[in-house]
Amino acid sequence: MLDSLNQQPADALLALIKLYDADPRADKIDLGVGVYRTNDGATPVFSAVKAAEQKLVAEQDSKAYLGPEGDMGFVHALMPYIFGSKDPTMGGRIDGMQVPGGTGGLRLAFALAKRSGINRIITGTPTWPNHPQILADLEMESVGFSHAGPVGTADMAALRAAIADAQPGDAILLHGCCHNPTGIDYTPEEWDEVARLVADSGLLPIIDLAYQGLGRGMDEDAAGLRKVLAAVPEAMICYSCDKNFGLYRDRVGAFYVMGKSAESTVKVLSNGHVLARTNWSQPPDHGAAAVRLVLRDESLTKQWLAELDAMRTRMRDVRKALAAADNRVAGLDLAPLAHQNGLFSMLALDKDQILAIREKHGVYMAGSGRINVAGLTMGNIQKFIDALADVTA
Ligand SMILES: Cc1ncc(COP(=O)(O)O)c(C=O)c1O
Q1: Could you give the CA distance from residue 328 to residue 332 in angstroms, rounded to a whole number?
Q2: Which residue in 121, 175, 303, 347 could disulfide with 48, CB within 3.0 to 4.6 Å?
C-alpha cells in the first residue's frame, strides 16, 4: 500500500545547503539558509538564552506533562512585547497557547479557520512557501495578490483590489514585519490603511509575526499588528521566538486569539487545544521555558534586547552597504534594500544569473532571487557586489 505514494521533490533550500557544503571554495557565500549570522558567519546561542538554560537545568524539578496549551507563563510573558504593555489582553479578549514554532501556530490558525467555516485565505505573493503548502495540505485555497510593487515597496493597489474582491467568510494572512521573502513591510501610513480596509471588509486577519525585533525595533515591528487589532473584532496571531531568541531547532512559538469577547476567546482556544492534542499533543518545553526565564529576569531581558539590537544594527549596516553599491551594479536596483526589513530581500536576477553567480563565484541563493542579508559580512560583501556586477553586466 505504501508503494502507492509518489516520490516528493527535496526541499529546494535543503538541496542548496547540500550543494553549498560540497563546494570546496574557501570564499563561498551562503545567502540561502534563513538563519541570522554574525559578522563571523556564526549562528550562536544568545548569551541571555544560555544563562536561562543553565538556570532552567538547575531549577526545573519535573518534566511531567503540562497540557496541550504548554507553558502559559511563557505565553503570557510575551504578550506585553507583542500587544503593548498598556493593555496586553485588550480587556481580556486576547489569550493564547504555546505551539511548536511559528509553523505550529500557522498550522493551528489555518485549521481553526477551517473549523470555523473559512476556506479561502488571501495572501500577498510571493510569501513564505510553507504558507501555501500548509493551506494546500489542509485543502484550503490561497488567493494570491502581488505584495511587491515595481520599486521595492508594497503594491497597495493590488492589496486594495484583493480586499475588494474578497468574499464573505474569507481570511487574510498578513506578515507582521520583516516580510519573507521580500523584506517589504507596510509603512506606518500603509498599516493605517491596511487596518481600515481589513476592518471594513470583515475579513478575519491572521497575522504572522516571526521576526519581531529584527526589522526596526520591538515596538516598531508590532505597530502594524496593533493597528489591525485595534480596528477589527477578531484576529489570530502566530508568533515565533525561533529567530528573535535564536532558538530555531527548539521550536518555540505562541498562538494568540483576539475574540469578540473574553468568553469567545476561551471557546476558540478550547478548539485550539483539541487540534493541538490531535496533532502534536503538547509542544516541546525546553526553549519556551528558557524564554520565560529570560523575560522574567530583568537583567536577562536587558541582555536579550541588547543582543537583538546588535543583530538588527548589523543587518541594517549590510543593507546600507548594498544600497550604497547601487551604481556599481548597473543591472540591478539595490537602493530599495536600505528601507526593507529583516533577514530577506529579493534581487531581480533571472535563473541563468542565479546559476552563474553560484558556479562562477560560489554565491548560493534561492532560485527565487531571495537573499539572506545576514549571510553577508563586512569581509565578503565586496566580493558579493563584484559577483553581482559580473553576472548582471
Ligand atoms: C514568515 C514566516 N513565518 C513563520 C515561520 C516559521 O518559523 P518557525 O521556525 O518558528 O516555525 C517562518 C520561518 O522561516 C517565516 O519566515
Answers
A1: 9
A2: 303
Q: Domain of 98: which CATH number?
A: 3.40.640.10
Quick: pLDDT tens for 196-211.
999 999 999 999 999 9
278 in the same domain as 160: yes
Specify whether 247 is located in the same domain as 337.
no
Work out the average pLDDT over 70-92. Answer: 97
Do residue 273 and residue 305 come from a single domain? Answer: no
Catalytic residue among 30, 71, 95, 128: 128
Identify the CATH number of the domain in which residue 357 sits.
Answer: 3.90.1150.10
Going from the Cα of 59 to the center of ligand 1, the distance in angstroms, rounded, reads 30
Mutate to test the pocket of ligand 1, among 242, 247, 343, 368 (most ligand atoms within 8 A of CB): 242
Ligand 1 proximal residues by C-beta, below 6 Å: 34, 101-103, 128, 175, 180, 208, 210, 240, 242, 253
Of all protein residues, the one whose alpha carbon is nearest to atom 12 of ligand 1 is 210
Q: What number does the ligand 1 atom closest to the CA of 344 have?
A: 16
**Domain range spanning residue 313?**
11-45+300-392
Per-residue model confidence as pLDDT tens digits over 91-111: 999 999 999 999 999 999 999
Are 78 and 39 members of one domain? no
Look up 304 and say whether it is catalytic: no
Say if residue 275 is in the same domain as residue 316. no
- Reported as a pLDDT band with limits 50, 70 and 90, residue 150 is confident
- In the chain, which ranges are continuous DSSP H helix? 12-22, 47-59, 72-83, 101-115, 130-137, 156-164, 188-201, 218-231, 262-279, 286-295, 298-324, 351-361, 381-392
| Average pLDDT of span 253-281 | 98
From 250, 272, 296, the end of a domain falls on: 296
Percentage with pLDDT > 90 across the chain? 95
In ligand 1, the atom with minimum distance to the C-alpha of 105 is 11
Residue of the nearest CA to atom 14 in ligand 1? Answer: 34
**128 has catalytic annotation:** yes
Instruction: State whether 255 and 360 are in the same domain.
Output: no
Number of H helices, E strands in the chain: 13, 11
Identify the H or E element spanning 205.
strand 204-209
